[in-house]
Amino acid sequence: MTAYSGGNFKMASRLLEQRAARRPESEVDWLYLGVSRLMLADYSDAVEALIHARAIPDPKYNLHSAWYLAQGYLLLDQ
Length: 78
Description:
Blueprint: H1 2-5, H2 9-22, H3 27-39, H4 43-54, H5 62-75
């Protein structure tokens, strides 16, 4: 999360991809992966990660995942 917090979204995306692959049930990993991809203007892949995050019923992050997913769809012009 140091890369994400430091604004290095390219590195954060790469690290979070690996982490999400190891922990596919972790909504927070998918959420931050999606947000990192949004920040890189990789909207299609961001939406994919955020859809995955939304499919995991974690009340702590679910609202955030929904909001960023909506942003991703808007940025995709959908």
